[in-house]
Amino acid sequence: MTVNSITFFVFLLCTVIIYYSVKPKHQWICLCIASYIFYILTGVSTLVYIFITTITTYIATNWMQSVTKKRKRKILTGLLLLNFGVLLVLKYYGFMLFNINRIAGIVNSVRLDDSLTFVAPLGISYYTLQSMGYAIDVYKSKCKPERNIFKVALFVGFFPQMTQGPIGRFKDLASQLYASHKFEYRNFSFGCQRILWGLFKKTIIADRLSPVVRNIFTHYGSYDNLTLFLGCVYMTIQIYADFSGYMDIVCGAAEIFGIKLAENFKTPFFSSSLAEYWRRWHITLSGWFRDYLFYPLSISKAAVKFGKFGKKHFSVSIGKMFPAIFALSIVWFATGLWHDASWRYILWGVANGIIIISSIWLEPLFKKTKLLFHIKDSCKGWHRLQVVRTFLIVSLLKVFPGASSTKESLIIIKRMITEFPVSINYKSIFPQLCHSELCYLVFGIVIFAGVSFYQRKEPVREYIARQVFPVRVMVYLGMIASILLFGVFGTDAVGGFEYAQY
Amino acid sequence: MHSIKKILLRLIIVFLFVLILESGLRFIYEPNEDYSQYRKIELEENKGEIEMVFCGTSRTMKDYNPQIFDKKLNTNSFNLGTGQQPISITYYYLKEIIEKNPIEVVFLEVSPTTLCKDSDRANDTPAKLSVYDRLFNWKTKIISFFDIFPVSEYEEAILYSTNIESLFDFEFIKSNVNSKLSNRYEDGLKGVDTKSYKGKGHVSGRSVYKGAEIGSKYIEKKSWEGKRIQKKNVKFLNKIIQMCLREGIEINLVTVPVNPKLQAELSGLDEMNNYYLDIASHYSIDYYNFYNYRKKDNVFLIEYFSDFIHMNEKGTEIFSNYLIDIYLKSKCGEELEKFFVL
Questions:
Q1: Between chains, do B152 and A494 touch, taking CB under 8 Å as contact?
Q2: Could you tell me the CA-to-CA distances from A350 to A92, A221, A334, A337 in Å, in that order?
Q3: Residue A240 near residue A269, CB atoms below 8 Å
Q4: Using one digit for the tens of pLDDT, what is the confidence trace for B141-187?
Q5: A41 plus A126 within the same structural domain
Q6: Where are the transmembrane segments (chain B) (predicted)?
Q7: Is A5–B154 a contact, with Cβ atoms under 8 angstroms apart?
Q8: Does ipTM come in above 0.85?
């Protein structure tokens, strides 16, 4: 059951009716039951893993309360090892074995049996990070442990967010989940609006672009550099529409229950640097890596030693950057690996890391250059140029996730450099897209871009809410009609979201 | 309470809007000059009089000529075949027809793909919809919905607007709307392509197979492979037979002829024959397997096919006559073994 299917909306409607019909103090129980019914509907066999995470998190967080600091650390280490171990085995076992066997093949030693395979349950990458974040917060005394295991279960598996996030923080989310909520028209109305907007992005833009992107990356050998480059750009737009569309649907669904989920996007395509882009894209994941990996790593003993090394061999100012560079390298490697167990994703993560580290490293040089050419940061033209540059960098990096293997990514890069277009025609710009489909897509993108621009000024729905009733009705009915008429429905479309695979 | 009222009002507006939009789009885009529409009206006109039906896919639709059956068997027959019709829909479609007509004989198509078709795989939604839309009874429509469509097809099955391929084909819109406003249905076959539509659900053409090469994937798809059998399809095959027997209707399983060039390439045909024979003997019904027809090499020649699996007008005439002949002889006590390799 994907969140853009009719079954999900029927499920949501039933849950909403029950949620507001039961006694307020029982509302969280209703959400908990609904969440696990939702999870069961995606596959009963994988239920055991979410139970392991819930139970171990519950035991560890409560145990940590009554022990010494040293023991607390041991408990947390054990919990992290167990849960990330499960994630590692389920998601990365095949990848690790493949690489071990390749190395073994080179040195001509015995191969490990690779017949055993695991199927990673839906959302494991998300709920593992969320629950481990909670455990670390308890360890750091940032929040108190929850005494009720079913409440922990709800926090780990709240149904709108369990499959693709956003990765919530206990202190922000838990109190909302456990609190009683009165039915409010505004919540219902805004929730529905946001769901509609998510569906608009998903069905009209993401699913329309999906076959185009798939075609370009599958048949890369028959396309020149222009089409391959456009493939990367299309993929950037497709992934954004897909993932942010999903976020809008889940945030809208949660809003109906009176629960505000953390925002995952803040108009990322308006970023002027890659680092800023990552602060505005998949914010909850970046935030998790920042708080639970980057900060601890940058003050770790190894980072300090690395910093001393930098100060000694380079200069004091450069040496100061070394701990951050050390932490960033690991964070970006982990980010790549988190997305998928493959070298192309690791390469993608590393490439992001290299660009960000380089920009930190070269910052003084950039400043000097700007001074030389009298370029002010407040200059709008310069800012726009930076925005375009960042978008192009983000798009070009999509060559790694877009291709189906590392080798193919490298071939595509090579083709992008060497294969110049012989002729530019409609098919080389929009392969797999007929004229009418292009019209629907352009319509969707224009509305999307317009909303994104306006969103920087104020939330569009606040603006719409100020309009008179007939105008509001026209807007929403227009949106429904657009989704039905211009959206893609069917096999591939309702199959799911891109980020669900991570 | 005030909030609930507000929400209800808005939900009603949305519901009415979607309803009007869907109806409007159906009126504008649903093809009028299409025999599938006309067939529904024909069925309604023949309500209470149909005695014999042919059920199955496009092969049934093209291979059985009801007019020949009517003439030779002095009956009133109707062809219920539609393109890629899954057996689950055949069950509900037939059930409705039986409820409305004094059906005495059913010819049910069984082929290597009948039981192997994965109806849960969302790849033949239009094929399913073309039959589903023909169901008359809302009760049957609702009950059958969940059996016919997998979750991933719900949107397309419920909302017509999600199936429109080209919104901007203004020439089509103009002619379609004009055609609908002119009440062509009432003028009988006027609005239908009479070259290929022969009436009573039968569609046939004069084109002859020109010897195109057969792809290996196609051969694989059209071959019989036991492990590809879907439990759900077997369940519906049994349900169809049981329903007919319960209603006192004679049911015959028929594997219609296939282009000899394709048959030579197909595999697992003996297993298929045994499989359907077992079912037929279990229910004590007849199985006419024209893949194993003793005279097939002399009767069903390549020129009687329009492609790999469908017969042309001439082939249909020959097949219908041969089937009637064998059917009558078997009713007179002749063993089917005389005609088919069992």
A1: yes
A2: 18, 26, 9, 10
A3: yes
A4: 888 888 778 777 788 888 888 888 788 888 888 888 887 777 555 55
A5: yes
A6: 7-29
A7: yes
A8: no
